[in-house]
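Entry 14. Structure prediction run on the chain below.
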Amino acid sequence: MPSTPRSRLRPSTVPFSAQGLRAYPSELHAGGGGAQENGAIQFAASSAPRPPYARVKQFLKDSLEAGRWAPGEQMPSEADLVAQFGVSRMTVHRALRELQDAGLITRLQGVGTFAAQLNRVSSTLTINDIQEEIRRRGHRHDASVHIQRAEAAPPALAQRLGLDAGATVFHTLIVHHEHGVPLQCEDRYVNPACAPGYLDVDFTQMTPTHYLLDVAPLWEAHVAIESALPTAQEARLLGIQRTDPCLIVVRGTVSRGMPVTLARLVHPGSRYTLESQFRP
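Output returned:
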């Protein structure tokens, strides 16, 4: 009997900009015939005062998101920011260094600071694509699409996507397979303003992750990971029992200040390994 393929899930290298991030099961979409269980993201605001460098960093990040400086346009100098915020040059330097590390700005010694090109942002803030991950191992990826439609967003979901309650939202439910073995159940909601052509895509050939990164360059992402039991629907689609533990990733992404998508990615625990690498 052939062995069951195992996948190594590597966490996204995007920054967390909210405190108290966690995943929890929630009935986001109540409709006829009962409630459909989905994942959701909850953010608890931190009441701790921000250090001076964080205030400078947030001001620049908010201004970049608002389009104050076009990609490639020169931004205020360190001296200008020192004067504007009344902080030390070292404080400003740290704020700029962290924005550069995140791929949001480019700094040229002796020249100045510039807003990064969007393609640089999207290549720096990396979201892994399960199709590419499977193919890198030389294996076959298949996807079965169970839902691909427009729906009315209930209040909880609308709030997380920055929409009005009842506004149209795009919904897909897809199971990804490696050599015929289900590895991931992807339940995703998408903001139509960010990807108006989403429902026209053949997701048996291209993953939602790949498509969304093309049409809505990644600016920010929030990720929560937990070990939990699947819903009845998820267990059925993955061919596992309700009592089988799963690795559940709940991910929301933002492009230029606008929420793009909220996805719940469920992986059978026996088929996935979570890995990370840290260097001091």
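Confidence is low (pLDDT under 50) at residues 6-47, 119-125.
Filed with the rest of this week's runs.
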